[in-house]
Structures are given as structure tokens and as C-alpha cells.
Amino acid sequence: MKYLTFATATLAASAAWADTPELTVYTYDSFVSDWGPGPAIEKAFEETCGCDLNLVGLGDGAALLARLKLEGARSDADVVMGLDTSLIAAAKETGLFAETAVEAEYTLPIEWNDPVFAAYDWGYFAFVYNKDLEVPTNFVDLGAGDLKIVIQDPRSSTPGLGLLMWVKAAYGDDAPAIWAALSDNVVTVTKGWSEAYGLFLEGEADMVLSYTTSPAYHLIAEEDNGKAAAAFDEGHYMQIEVVGKLAGSDQPELADQFLNFMVSEAAQNILPTTNWMYPAVTPSAGLPVGFETLMVPQKALLISSDEVPAIREEALAEWLKALSQ
Amino acid sequence: MLALILLALGAVLSRAEVGAGLGPSDWAAVRFTLLQAACSSFLSVLLAIPVARALARRRFVGRGALVTLLGAPFILPVIVAVLGLLAVFGRNGWVNDGLGALGLPEVSIYGFHGVALAHVFFNMPLATRLLLQGWQGIPAERFRLVAQLRLTPRAMFRAVELPMLRQVVPGALALVFVICLTSFAVALTLGGGPRATTIELAIYQAFRFDFDLGRAALLSVVQLVLAGSMAVLALWLVPKLGIGGGLDRMMPRWDARGGVQRMGDALVIVLAALFLLVPLSAVVWRGVRGLPQMPSEVYAAAGTSIWVAVASIVVLLLLALPMAGWIAGRSGGSVEAIGLLGLSASPLMIGTGWFILINPYADPFDFALVVTVAVNVMMALPFALRILVPPMRDAVAQYGRLSMMLGVRGWRLWRVVLIPRLRAQIGFAAGLTGALSMGDLGVIALFADPDRVTLPLQMERLMGAYRMDAAAGAALVLLALSLGIFWICDKGGRWRAEA
Q1: CATH (one of 3.40.50.2000, 1.25.40.10, 1.10.599.10, 1.10.3720.10) for B2-494
Q2: Counting Cβ atoms within 10 Å, is residue B331 exposed (0-12), middle (13-18) or buried (19+)?
Q3: Angle, vertex CA B386, rays to CA B320 and CA B327, nearest 5
Q4: pTM, whole model, 2 decimals?
Q5: pLDDT, tens only, B360-416
Q6: Of the candidates A69, A161, A195, which has its C-beta nearest B211's C-beta?
Q7: Looking at beta carbons, which residues of chain B come within 8 Å of A56?
Q8: Which residue among B87, B205, B445 sits closest to A155, beta carbon to beta carbon?
């Protein structure tokens, strides 16, 4: 009975809140955690919108899309934040997203003018290592050498899929040969990013697939400048994280306001040292101290999002074949 | 419970589009899954027999602690246990450091043997506990008779222990087999690459990346069928012979007092303890280093997890005791087989299925804790039944008729006859459920309530944000809480009794 009383009281309380509009944003787990960008973003946005921002963390980018497909048009979400370039085609195919008109002076290494999704941060995939190591400068040398790497499974992890796209974008039809050469360098393949990074930190591998911005975390948060990202001369594949508005939203204006907020100075200042990615629009004060030490690739690689689904199928089959030998 | 699984499966299927059947890579996954599960379960149980036998025969300082710690590997979050194993057997681990110091070549843990090693680490202690219960079930009078007849250890093994093992081993094998069947992250990480793909990984991929519900349901069915056949096989192997009653009291053992046996038992116990404790101490060491960096949110998450664990224990006991009583009164094992099915159902499939069922009518977040408790209970039920049914069967066989004659039935039958006989097993089952619920991530990912994060999820979030040290600290808290709840229940059950 007590429970019922409590439930009734809670319901009554939420009814009283209903006057303040609520914006529900689905995002990935690490965004909402107390050490992620979530709390600061929520505070900054609520100061300007006169609304209640409800950030809901749901696994990773892929889980986010799966969740959205499960809920379909019934979804409570107004905005989905945290899909990346490899998921955009699948996301658009659901027909659940609405076009937006976000105006931003993007500082991305490539042109960004997607009518549906706004970019809020981005990074380059890279192999991270401990500085005392002599590292190869491309996949061919990596495959020929005997350094051990740990990577993520492209069937369960977005960085794993990113690596697949990286090799495909750099080598096209020669990708199977690259993978065959790499197969004896791969110590193991993990379910997700954190398992792989954990194995690397425990010394199980010389290098781990991560981001060029990973050393910034160690430098800024841990004051450890011992990590670096290896520069590969064939270029580095990009991951661009995007935010989009759902067509079924009951707060379309507020959703647009949030999208514009995410590319504004206020949000872009928060992201680099909480999400550990590059801001999509470099703030006027520049990047945080420490980011200038990061390796900047000579060339940015990206496969256009419409081509990703077909290339993914092919690349996954090649990867499975090469690493199952 | 069957309804819980089937409804979920039906819900997933209702949303599925007709897709392709199983491809060659799926069949490769099925083959690998079967092979590794068969090898792992066989090794785990085979190695558990001498350990359980030694523990049953000996009394020594620290025995109680060792028996409690047997529950530890099983309840650790997978990645934590894997990191613990790697600290010992990994490329940079103690074994390879030792080999390197001796000028010997490095051994790699990655491969089929690594998967088996990890599964033995997880399941051998559990199998030992199950077998130990079997030894405990042998009436003390038997041991006195053995001593009076001066039976050699070999004759004693054939006359007393072998019949007991024939009763207990098939069930333990089936249980460990089904646990290994649904392995995913362990198999992939230590298997060293996509060769080590299990069905569970394919299910995960189908749900998460491809959103191919038809394929996911099909693969779930394959997994259920494999587990189901194993369950039927195991229960068919169990002979329908009771081991007979005794005076129901504890006695010291007079057999196996020779020096050779003592040495042998001591060696077995030391080896098993080392295999168990060295990786665990690596986990504890990493955790202690991480404790100071742990954010306070971890404690809030710990509170939620304790709540979930206690609720799961209560629901489990309310469900498992009547079920065990009902099974014990019958000769067949079909209900126990259903219990095993529950374990083999992919939590992702159950979670998704129930999500599809609940979502049109209510906010799934409101049901987060209810669904979590339900799934925890479902996962723990097979263990509980495996633990409760054999002694329940004995109790019913021995005291059933007497109780009926004396008119003891209903609640009084439970209170006077059954519960006192089963105290140790009830405590063990409750402890295991609590510990499992504490560590389970299963469905919580789909139903995760933003305001009520559980400890395993909080640990994953820390790891996902580079904070590996803090995550190791959270893992230590998780281990301590799981073992604590396990110890309280287990100790409560074994209070003034030997196990």
C-alpha cells in the first residue's frame, strides 16, 4: 500500500511539472555519466531554454539505433544524439528523423552539410601506444612487423567497424591482403572499446585501436604524457558524432533549439575535455591546453554514409575470412 | 517461467521480417560453441571431482573461507575476471614473466585453450560446490560402515562415492555446459579472434548492429534447442536410485587417514586454491589501487544493486522451494530441464522480447527493476533447482511416509521436516542468487533506468570513460558485496552444520 501511495504522489508531482516543457534526448551511456559531458550540457541548456532537459543514456551508438527501431514512431524521444557516420544511412532509412536547419561554421576536415544530422564532435581513429616504442607508419609496415595490436570486433563495436572502414577506404580491393598480413599481429578481438583499451593498459598488446584524442585524456586528466597515437601516412579514418531530431517529436521547436545549442560555443567548450573528442566548431578560445600536443593526421579518410552499408557487408566478409584462417 | 521465455521469443518473432536462414558462418559458430562448451564443462567437472573429494575428507583452518571463495570467480563481471586471469597468464602476466626469467619462450593464452582455461576458472569452483553437496548428502553411517569394514579407498570409492557421483555429475555437467553455451565476451576475448565466435555473439550482432529480429530469434531457438537436448540427455543419464537414508547427523570421517591420501588431498587442495586465488588476488590488488579514484556515484549504484539482489533472493525462494518440492515428488526431470532452458535463453532476447511487449502500453523504464529481478530469478532458478532438488528428493523419500502417517503436512511439513533438512542448500541457493543478481548486466542495458544505475553498469561506464583504475575499484566493491551476500546466506544456511 505504501508503494501505491508513493506512486500516486510521484504521479501527482510529475503532473505539476508538466507546465515546464520537457525535451527527451536519447544518447549513449558515457555521455550521461557523471564524468561525461551530460551534467554540464544539461545545466547550460536549461539556463537558456526554460525547459527540462531529460538525457537518457542507452548503451552505445549502435544500441541507440536498435532501441529507436524497437520503439518506432511511438518513441518518447525528441532528439537522438550520438549516432556516427557509419550509422547515418541506417538511421535515415528508418524514416523516423526530420530535416533540420542547423547553421554552423563547422571546422571539420571535410565538408558537412547533411540536411538531417548536425555534427557535434569528431575524432580520428588511431593506434595508441606507449611512447617508448618504435611504431610503424602505415598498415603495410604494421602487418610486416611483429608488434601486437588489440582491436574491437566490428560485429559488436563501432570503433571495430571504423577500423574496417579505415582499411577499406585506404586500400580498397587490397584490403583482404592487408588483413591477412595483420592477422598474426592481432593478439585478440574484443567485444567493445573498453575491453580492448583495458587489455592494452594491462600490457597485453603494444598498440590498441582508439582515437588520436585518447592521449589527451591521459595528459589532461591523469597528467601522464606517456601515451601517443601512431601517425599513418595513408590517412586516418574519421568518426563524426551527430545529433538529429525525430519527426514524431512533440517539442519540435525545442528540439531545433537543442540542435543549435549543441553546435554553439557553450556546448562546444564542454565537449573536448568531457567526451575526449574534437569539437565540431572550434570555440573562439581555441582547443583546451594539451590538445596541441596531439598527433594531427596528414589526411582525413571518410566513406560517404550512403555507401557504408554495402561496403560494410563486403569488408566484414573479408575481415572474417582473413582472421579466421 | 517457460511462458516468460516463450512470450519474449514470440514478441521478437512478431516484429521480425522474413529473412535468410543460417549461413555457413552461423554453422561455424554453432560448431565452435558446442565444442568449447563440451570441452569446458567436461574439464570443469572432471577437475572438480578430486577437489570436492579432498575438501569432503579434510578439515583444516581456512576451509570455510575457501569453500565460500569457490563462489567468487563465477560471480565476477566477465571483463574483471578476464583481466585477473590475464594478470597471471597473459603476455605480460606472472607466468610469462617467470618463464622469461628462466629464459623459456612465452606461452600465449589466446586460443581455444584460453577459452577452456577461463571457463574452467569460472565453473570448476561452482562444480566443486555442487559435488561437495553430493558428498555431504552421503549418510554418515556409510562412512562408519566403510571404516568398520576397513574398505580400501578404491573399494570405498566404488561402493559409496561412485553411485553418488553418478547421481550428481550429469546434472553438474549439464549446468556448466549450458553456462558455457551462452558465453560471449570470454570466448571472443580469449579465443583470439573471430574464429572464437559463439552463437551468443551472433545473437548480439543480430540485435544490435543488424536489427534483424528474425535472425536473432532463429539463433535464440538454436541455442535453446542445444541446451534443451543437453538437459534431456543429462537427466536421462541420472540413475533413478536413491542412496538411502541415514540417521541424518554429522559424523567425523574415519576413512582415508593414510599418509598417501593425506598428501594427495593436500596437493589437490593447494593446487585448486592457487588456481583460484592467484587471479582473484590480482583483481583485488588492482581494485585496491583504484579505490581512492572511485567517484561517490559508485556507492549509490551499490545501493541499487543490493536492493535488486535482496528482491531477487526473496522471489527466487518463493518460486524455487515449491518447485523443488513438486519435482521431488515426481520421478521425471522435465521441470528441471525447463530450468536449464531459462539459463540458455539469451538475456538480450528476453530483454528485447519483453521490451516489445511492454513498450506499447507503458514506459519500460518503470519496469526496469521488475524485469531485472524477473530475469535474475530466471537465471538463478536452474542453479537453485540443481542445488535443492537432490536433497529434497531424499528428504521426501525418507520422511514423506512418516510425515503423512503423523499428519504433518502443508506449512508444518515445510517448517518441521523439509526446511531444517535443506537449510544448507537453501542458504547456498539464496547466496548464489544474490551474488549472481549483484553482478548481472543481462537485461539492465535495455531497461536501464537513468536514475537508478546498478553497480555493474556503473563499472562499465567508468571503463568506457578511460577510468580503468576507478572501474577496478568498483569491481572490488562489487566482488566484496557479492561475496558478502553469498557468505551471509551461505553461512546462515550452514550455521551449526558442516558443509
Answers
A1: 1.10.3720.10
A2: exposed
A3: 60
A4: 0.84
A5: 777 777 777 787 888 788 878 878 887 888 778 777 777 777 877 787 777 777 777
A6: A69
A7: 450
A8: B205
